[in-house]
Amino acid sequence: MIKKAFIFDLDGVIVDTAKFHFIAWQRLAASLGINFTEHENEQLKGVSRVNSLKKILEWGNKEISPELFQAKMDQKNEEYLELIETLDVNDIMPGVHDFLLELKKQDQPIALGSASKNARPILEKLGIKDLFQVIVDGTNVTKAKPDPEVFLCACEQLGYSAQESIVFEDSVAGVQAANTAGMISIGLGEQDILHEADEVFSHFTDMPQDYINTLLSKKK
Ligand code: BG6
Ligand code: MG
User: Fold this and answer.
1) pLDDT in tens, 177-217
2) Does domain 18-86 have CATH number 3.40.50.2300?
3) How far apart are alpha carbons 91 and 206 in whole angstroms?
4) pLDDT tens-digit profile of 160-178?
5) Which of 47, 77, 87, 176 to mutate to test the pocket of ligand 1 (most atoms within 8 A of CB)?
6) How far is the CA of 14 from the centre of ligand 1 (A)?
7) Which CATH class is domain 5-15+92-217?
């Protein structure tokens, strides 16, 4: 039986936390007198906390002291954690749970490849942490997406090559990371934004029947 490494991004793929990251960053930016919209936010998806704040400051043409920079990152995370406090199994994106269970049934290896330092507690809140054999998150890597480090670590830990790996991503940076690694990239979101992905779906529920089998024989 063919096996592939199935690697999932978290925010915006497994759970709709992308909107909470956006709200928290928008509040933070406003506290610095910087205005930013969903358009710029698209460029923050998949991007680490530290690099996100750097980008926001660049857009606002602002420089702040290292102390204030750290304080603002902490403030953003506190607000974000408040926003996600009540997350539970009902917040899993449509079709994701069934897709993961089907992979498990077929004994396919599953990993998480996320930039977030909050990934483990979020998976616990959703009650699906045990479905992942390997978790690589923002606490394990030094290079942020679009660098492929997070996905390369995930496939290596599962014992598969990049060519045997499939990545599910909602961000441009994440799709680019998967492509750079030579992995198959499946975008979740809008075709216009994620056009660099090998295939794009709005949701897991839009994938054709038996799509896992299609993926198992898919070549980059
Ligand atoms: C990514 C999100 O998954 O994680 C980004 O798409 C976020 O929006 C990044 O900034 C880092 O997350 P956290 O939880 O460590 O601040
Ligand atoms: Mg994401």
Assistant:
1) 999 999 999 999 999 999 999 999 999 999 999 999 999 99
2) no
3) 18
4) 999 999 999 999 999 999 9
5) 47
6) 13
7) alpha beta
